[in-house]
Amino acid sequence: MSKISKFFKGGGSAASKSRRGPSPQEALARLRETEEMLGKKQLYLETRIERELAAARQHGTKNKRAALQALKRKKRYEKQLSQIDGTLSTIEFQREALENSHTNTEVLKNMGYAAQAMKKVHENMDLNKIDDLMQDITEQQDVAQEISDAISNRAAFGDEFDE
């Protein structure tokens, strides 16, 4: 492989790590950092817009050229601010989607663990043995009921005559 293709395709252990991708926690941390940075830039642009607007008012009709330049800068800053708003919206959406995906992955992993545990619990159970056991229990309950019925009937001393 040539040096150029190694450079573009990645030819080392660092490249194999990047193919795996970052962990969800790393990606979430980076997205939050980016959100913070963009939030700071928003505040900066908002103060710049207010300054340019104040400069335009200050120059007013006295220096129209300076006032127009201040309004043009203000317009550029507003455009940058709206772009940042859109970018922030996209990043927030991506962060929420990543958080949901991570949550779903954890839930699925835990459900898999539970399924394995249930499989282990049911490993020693045989359906035929369970059916036999349930029949035995039913028979014993029937015997117990017959005994109970026999005991609870009044004794027929003297009511019946044996001829």
Automatic annotation (TrEMBL):
Residues 1-26 are annotated as: Disordered. The keyword Protein transport applies. InterPro entries: Snf7_fam. It is found in: Cytoplasm, Cytosol; Late endosome membrane. Gene3D superfamilies: ESAT-6-like (1.10.287.1060). Keywords: Coiled coil, Cytoplasm, Endosome, Membrane, Protein transport, Transport. GO terms for cellular component: cytoplasmic side of plasma membrane; cytosol; ESCRT III complex; late endosome membrane; multivesicular body. One of its GO terms (biological process) is late endosome to vacuole transport via multivesicular body sorting pathway. Pfam families: Snf7. The keyword Oxidoreductase does not apply. It is a peripheral membrane protein. Belongs to the SNF7 family. This is CHM4C protein. It comes from Urocolius indicus (Red-faced mousebird). The gene is Chmp4c.
